[in-house]
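Before our next group meeting I need something from you. Please put the record directly below this note.
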Amino acid sequence: MGLWGSIWQAAKETGEQALKSVDSALDSARTSMEQHESAHNQGMEDLLSQFMAGNPNLTADQKAQLRKFAFKTGKLPTMSDLEPPIPPAK
């Protein structure tokens, strides 16, 4: 192998190592993201369970998060369950 062949081989090996590093970093990021999403979904499931069990102490922010989660997952039969009550007419 000549000089250019050696340079080519070294560049190829360096590129392959770089690709392996990028693949590893992407796998790590993907795993971290999946764990975060799983933890978030579990928290939302817990919040939804509290709501469905009749916990009236949910904040407006929690109800808004539940509306988004319910829409995304189809967990609630009706979205009106999470809407603020309409005050009675006087």
Observations:
- The two ends are 94 Å apart (CA to CA).
- The mean pLDDT is 82.
